[in-house]
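Schema walk-through. Below, the input block comes first and the output block second. Nothing else is stored per chain. Lengths vary across the set, and this one has 744 residues.
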Amino acid sequence: MSIYDTLNEQQKEAVLHTEGPLLILAGAGSGKTRVLTHRIAYLIEERGINPWNILAITFTNKAAGEMRERVDRLVGYGSESIWVSTFHSMCVRILRRHIGLLGYDTNFTIYDTDDQKILMKDVCKLLQVDTKIYKERALMAAISHAKEELITSEEFRLQAEGDYSRRKIAEVYEEYEKQLKANNALDFDDLLVKTVQLFQTQKDVLEYYQERFRYIMVDEYQDTNTVQFRLIQLLASRYRNLCVVGDDDQSIYKFRGANIKNILNFEQEFEDAKVIKLEQNYRSTGNILNAANAVIRNNRGRKDKTLWTDNGEGDKIQFRQFDTAYDEAEYIAEDIRDHVDQGDGSYHDHAILYRTNAQSRMFEEKFVTANIPYKIVGGINFYARREIKDLLSYLKTVDNGKDDLAVRRIINVPKRGIGLTSINRVQEYAASRELGFYEALQGADLIPNIGRGVSKLESFVALIEHFKADAKDLSISDLMQEIIEETGYVESLLGEGDPEESQSRIENIDELRSKIAAYEEMCEDQNEPATLSGFLEEVALVADIDSLDEDSDYVVLMTLHSAKGLEFPHVYLAGMEDGLFPSYMTITADDPEELEEERRLCYVGITRAEKELTMTCARRRMVRGETQYNKMSRFLKEVPMELLSTGAVFQKEKEEEVKKAAYVQAREAFRAKAFTAVKPTQSFGTPKGGKLDYGVGDRVRHIKFGEGTVLAVVEGGRDYEVTVDFDGPGTKKMFAAFARLQKI
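--- output ---
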């Protein structure tokens, strides 16, 4: 029997359709990775396509790794020639070869979020930007958004004419780009932007990769942004054999720049595109899918499809409403313990999903008390820890001496008597002569007023040059060992005073060394050289979700955004309350698109469950130190009653209430009319005739647009019309009662 006979009718149709643009609308759990891998095998085995001519792109290292393994198993010999990678990894691979054409060195550094924050602080200090008005985070977000839309700093400045706030952002954007270039560094957005610029300006390079990648497949297409769309469009424009796979109902990353219109308008961009729907779900039970279908059907901006399964109806969805969030956490902890004690799954078969990170605290406390192992996905990234950043900065400095951030981080780590005064004088000297920081260090004796610090600076430069010379002959593991020994880094940790914390940091260093060894082994297996640039590149592209160890036995706690692409036998959707999910900001914004994004997030949460789904909410919950009284989420009300199994209210101290009929209680809750996410006594808005507590020139805060400055207040018929110049979104006009502005 052929391997293609194991596919269902729609999957097989998608595999066999190889020429021209193809949109595969793959519902949750419908086997899209199976389709992609079989399609690759079919292209090679049946169509005789050279593996060299195939490119498969996905979004996470984890997904790329899984696809790589499956492709290798199916294809066998020659599969190593197929590019299976994330967008960012693909772009790095191209830029390492060709970025010299854009004026960069090929050993460029990739800046992570922490590096960007440090650089942005430097830029704001240099330009004397008031960071109370222009928040560094908001500036980074504005620049990132511009890059996602392929708007250069020059174009941003031209578009900002006449808008003081945006002109200031443009000034920061230009200096930020200048500093990146001087450091021979790229941020994550640049990896995509520079690749597009390379293709747009270097016709021969574009033609090479168009010839190389005659068959292109893109997974999770609903998550692509404008720059990713343009990148794929350029690569596929010659042969047009573009296959994109995605689910518009799972587009939940608008806040990261994802543009749902890329998938909704695919047939308009590619008029001869074929569309195939994968609606058979292999993951979940019928009741879970019926609930998901019922919720998502309320969205208008979607392509029509209905998930179904042969798995049977399964258990009804467990719905529980509690008096407090404390009760909610206690119930979930006990329910998980009962499942494990009864042999109905291990701890790692259970996941608790929530809308905001802050919700994890209550569950953590309960799990610690109940001795239940757990892991929070999306905590501090391993590579963001101090000791790891320090040692990686040594490696970055050896690899790319132009990376000022890395050099400045380690110049006095471990302490070698180089003070802030000396560092500032080097920085000022470098800036005045347009030199890199390390370049200025190499001529430290020429720096005015450097004084006795010159010998220490020269010793540091000699140490780095020693490492650079040895790096040519040593493996990365041996180089790391040499850096640790000759700098005395571990000894300095042990001397910090807290033995327990020092030991934890040393264990992290050991883990870093293990990571280096694993990288070298992987390169050896693939007959590729293990380079320092390659290792630093791999580290820079690691995502939080890639650290999830599926072999360990612990309950997983994560936000709904982190859960996409995962599946668990038992799933708990906690905090299903209006004001929390959907968020209060979404409700008050009165924006249908924002609400539809939240509903898609709910759909993603529901479809993570394989066997059993529990949805919970609480009548009152402490948020930011205040008690809020919430009604159940409107998304819960969209789930048909016949799919739900309701239990009694979980209140340990009030056992008499357990006797109350659960169905009656749920029915009353579902029939509840208006609801709000704030205390009933709380009042917003300013009635006409009342006095505003802010005026022209005052700083105010808006729940959606953030902070801004009041430009004008005009008295209208029923309300005041207020004009505010917001730090990020720009100038907005609104009525005072609706705006609910708070004076800062």
